[in-house]
Design brief:
about 140 residues, alpha+beta, Alpha-Beta Plaits, five-stranded antiparallel sheet, 3 helices, 5 strands, about 35% helix, about 35% strand, globular
């Protein structure tokens, strides 16, 4: 077991204070329930009223949560980042570890599956050939 130590920051913004609090509370609750991931600490800032936090919002509430967790493998760490979308993520340890090629494959496949899902939803896509003028 690799025990990949992660530091993650989650941010939320909403016009309503209760919405930003509830959404991040639920997000962290689900994160804590993840298999093969152990949340060791959660630091929750108070929601703050911000002016002009977003081009489409005159004022809103911003909240930040810092989480430290240990993932059982590098693939679990990749899945966590893909599924929970932290604003920032940092690997804090171990300094080094060995990884089998099958684990490398699983990690890359997780990324490929996510890109494919986005393409199917029309959110993004994959360039399969270049337009003639770019060759």
């Amino acid at each position: 077991m690799a025990n990949i130590e992660l530091w993650m920051v989650f941010e939320a913004l909403s016009p309503q204070k209760e919405d930003v609090n509830e959404s991040l509370d639920e997000h962290i609750k689900k994160l804590r329930e993840e298999k093969d991931l152990k949340v060791s600490s959660v630091n929750i800032d108070e929601a703050e009223l911000m002016e002009d936090p977003h081009p489409e919002l005159d004022e809103g509430y911003s909240k930040v949560v810092e989480v430290q967790a240990k993932a059982s493998s590098y693939t679990r760490a990749v899945k966590t980042v893909i599924n929970y979308g932290p604003t920032y993520v940092q690997i804090e340890g171990p300094e080094s570890f060995e990884m089998d090629i099958s684990d490398m494959q699983k990690s890359l496949q997780e990324v490929a599956n996510t890109v494919h899902q986005y393409a199917q939803m029309g959110v993004g896509g994959v360039l399969v050939s270049r337009p003639e003028e770019q060759k």
